[in-house]
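Key result, reporting period 2: structure in, sequence out.
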């Protein structure tokens, strides 16, 4: 008899931000309404109510997802972090006792700050008139929709350009 593999339609929450601190899920129990996580800043295990975490958490995004959301190359983001234009996000580390540095994870607030910064950075050589052309970046509303995993509807206008159209989410 063949065993069936369970497919999860939603991605499992592994890393998240709560109260501005990066956490990693260690154990989750819906029946007990309990989530045990590792707090990277304080270096200890913490327990939370699962419903409170689901209400108040912010997603933690690795660089591969930040690049897709912001629309800038990974090297561009790293250059601006080294120059001090962008702050370094919180970093995970191994939990085996060595604390070997791991990935950086950006919170939703970090991504908003990054978006605000890149709106002021000109793409390419400076213009003679001094104005800034940030390139193809999402608008603030598109950024929020991407982070909340909402659908964005685009309509083609008379000039042939696609313009986002927003509608009230139905509850």
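The corresponding designed sequence is given below.
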């Amino acid at each position: 008899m063949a065993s069936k593999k369970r497919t999860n339609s939603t991605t499992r929450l592994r890393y998240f931000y709560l109260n501005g601190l990066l956490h990693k899920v260690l154990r989750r129990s819906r029946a007990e309404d309990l989530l045990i996580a590792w707090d990277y800043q304080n270096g200890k295990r913490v327990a939370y109510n699962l419903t409170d975490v689901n209400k108040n958490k912010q997603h933690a995004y690795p660089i591969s997802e930040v690049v897709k959301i912001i629309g800038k190359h990974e090297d561009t983001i790293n250059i601006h972090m080294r120059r001090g234009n962008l702050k370094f996000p919180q970093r995970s580390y191994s939990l085996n006792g060595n604390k070997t540095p791991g990935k950086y994870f950006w919170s939703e607030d970090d991504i908003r700050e990054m978006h605000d910064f890149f709106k002021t950075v000109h793409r390419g050589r400076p213009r003679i008139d001094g104005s800034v052309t940030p390139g193809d970046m999402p608008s603030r509303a598109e950024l929020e929709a991407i982070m909340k995993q909402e659908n964005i509807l685009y309509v083609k206008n008379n000039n042939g350009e696609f313009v986002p159209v927003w509608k009230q989410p139905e509850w």
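The chain has five helices and nine strands. Residues 108-118 form the longest helix (11 residues). This case is discussed further under Risks and Mitigation.
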